[in-house]
Amino acid sequence: MCLIAILISISWGSVSISFSEIVAIIHYKLVGLPLADHVQETTVSILWFIRLPRILMAYIVGAALAVSGTVMQSILRNPLASLYTLGVSSGASLSAALYIVLGISLSFLGFFALPLFGFLGGFITILIIMSFTAQLDKNMSNQTIVLVGMVFSLFVNGLLTLVIVLSREHIEPLIFWQMEGFSGRNRSEVFITFLMTVFCIIFLMGYAREMDLLSFGEEQALSVGVETKKVKWQLISICALLTGTAVAFVGIIGFIDLIAPRVTQKIFGSSHILVLPMSALFGGVLMVTADLIGRTVLAPQEIPVGAVPALIGTSFFAYIYFHKRKGSDLLC
User: Angle 209-213-219 (CA atoms, 0-180°, nearest 5)?
Assistant: First the structure.
């Protein structure tokens, strides 16, 4: 399914590329076989330098968001918990806005400067939330983390609005960063995001047993020797790194980290040694599909990639919320 989604996304667009052309170009670039006569050089350029980096970045970002959402929902035992709802995206946007408004120059970082600031903003936001939660609740209960995260997210959004109002002349670059999505991505960005995503997923896989136990409750986890507070800090920090890296390069994308984990757990159960990689695969497919819809439905105009999962995710969010309300307290 993953390969099919990627091939369809590569094939469809303003310029259609047949599957035979895709295979011929990949053989030409990777194996060194002569380029088939029916394949034009412009088609090679479109596939290799524009469409393939975009689709690979979409898949990697979708995988990163899905895995982080899976971890957050498991350790906080809340189907609506994610680093998006806890303010990582808001923190990244605020940091990027301050970078633009203050005119900070980091020429040695090149195009990585703004993404770096976005990542740091999201990462610092979650660290503040965790630190503040620890002060309020020494046990760092799930309910306290979610509530503090939601409140702090609203506060950060308020600061972002204030920055926008006071510095409207600088807002165009910020809007461009937020809406650019996967277009214009290059191989260096794809490679860095891939390495960070693989590193974080491998690290999280090492905590599969702890997450299995935490998903049944903190008391059960404590009874078998899991240091719940320490494990939460580590897992949430790695998830913030995972999400922050994705958000930094492509802007704010919500709901993938809510939809993908929920669907994956319904299909594959609750064992994280299986759910984590399956969430990554499904999240990638979901993101590639959303990107395909965004760039083809109103072609040649593109829908911002974050809008597509948001339109789908809003109804999904409402379903989870009201379904949960029928059974038990949402934050328990």
Answer: 145
